[in-house]
Amino acid sequence: MAEYRSLLEELAQNITAEDLEQLKSACREDIPSGEGDAIATGHHWFAFLERHSKLDQANLSYIEHIFEISRRPDLLTKVVQYRTQVLKISEEDDVDTKLTRIPSAKKYKDIIRQPSEEEIIKLAPPPKKA
User: Which residues form the DED domain (predicted)?
Assistant: First the structure.
């Protein structure tokens, strides 16, 4: 449970006021009218999602979906990394069924690891001025 709370804390720290408006907009169908104004921080947003059974330590697929459609691959990557390291779901496991309901998270799991020497693009030095 401590790792889960740490994850939420780290995610909340990376959500600006502008980000929060975008996230709330992405899940507006799940926020009853009038309750959206009470969600003023990332912490409030996560608490709201937990109260409404959209989020818990065993079910992160909702926020994965919201981070995906809100174009926040950095936050989605943190969630996928949590699942891989804390929940011990190996990369060989079927990501689409074990990690999330959205197949797009599969493309972000490669962001977690460091690229190999062959994957790094080498740039030529700039041309010398004559």
Answer: 3-81
68 burial via Cβ count (<10 Å: 0-12, 13-18, 19+) = buried
CATH fold group of domain 1-91: Death Domain, Fas (1.10.533)
**Sequence spans of domains, the chain:** 1-91
Q: Is 0.85 topped by the overall pTM? A: no
Higher pLDDT, 63 or 104: 63
Q: What is the pLDDT of residues 47-89, one digit of tens each?
A: 888 888 888 887 788 888 888 888 888 888 888 888 777 766 6
Q: At CA 81, angle to CA 94 and CA 85, rounded to 5? A: 85
- Nearest residue to 39 (alpha-carbon basis) of 5, 9, 12, 78: 12
